[in-house]
Amino acid sequence: MEAILRNMEKNRKFFIIEMMTGMGQFTLLTGAFLAGFIHMLGGSDSLNGTIGAIPAIMGFMQIGSAMYLESLQERKRVTVKMITSLRTVLGLIYIIPILLIPFNLGLEVFIIMYVIGFGINALVAPAISDWLVNSTPAGIRGKYFAARERYAFIITILLSYSASKTLDYYKSIQQETTGFVLIGGTVLLLGLINIVFMRKMHEVNHEFQPSKYKFIEAVKMPLLDKKFRKVLILFVLWSAGFQMGAPFIAVYMISHLELSYTYVMAMTIVGTVMRIIFAPLWGKLADEKSWFLTAEGSVLLLGLAHLGWAFVSASNSQWLIPILSLLAGLAWGGVGLSLFNIQFIFAAIKGRTIFIAINAAISGVVSLLAVRTGGMIIDRYAMTQINIGLLSFNNIQAVIGMSALVLLMIPLYIHMIVRE
Question: Residue 62: what pLDDT?
Answer without folding.
Answer: 80
